[in-house]
Amino acid sequence: xxxxxxxxxxxxxxxxxxxxxxxxxxxxxxxxxxxxxxxxxxxxxxxxxxxxxxxxxxxxxxxxxxxxxxxxxxxxxxxxxxxxxxxxxxxxxxxxxxxxxxxxxxxxxxxxxxxxxxxxxxxxxxxxxxxxxxxxxxxxxxxxxxxxxxxxxxxxxxxxxxxxxxxxxxxxxxxxxxxxxxxxxxxxxxxxxxxxxxxxxxxxxxxxxxxxxxxxxxxxxxxxxxxxxxxxxxxxxxxxxxxxxxxxxxx
Length: 251
What we know:
- This protein is 82% helix and 0% strand.
- By secondary structure, it is mostly helical.
- The chain is globular.
């Protein structure tokens, strides 16, 4: 509902400012695939967070920048750099430490831990796809609309199949509707910024957002939800810190 509402809101803005929303085979393909790569990790996250906790889920969002760099190397968007390659090794080591620690704690099923740790892969693929398949002449605003509406198409069957009661309450409850309106406004602003930053700086730089989200998520999970920090977090944090320093060092 949030994705659809944000897509509709931004489509009105596109028509008001750009006069039309360009729909052709290329833009529809972009919207559907970019939407799927955006929606799937969100869907996985919503189902997994109840099993692994918000803190562990937040930590996973540190890794898209490293995975995005690996994929960018493979497809030729980046050049091999020893420092950044070392950063990837540190980052993957941190991921392994966190996953092993979480599995050893016995408070989450292994399947949910693996599912959570694959979310950064989908995010990274989405980062690369949006850059490489950016339609010629496509504006940040119009492509944000296409991605959100494409993501809605992907998620709608899951919402109706697995959460029909919750979906009904979401769109009919007055109290929840106000929260939905707020989410739509935030989501709209977030995705306009996401595409603008992607166009300006590229996929690897964009993926740094995940590191900020991870820190904020852990603070909120521990401070407001009463969760304990993920097992081995501080050991993993040393590797993550080393990865970020190596990745952003001046070349």
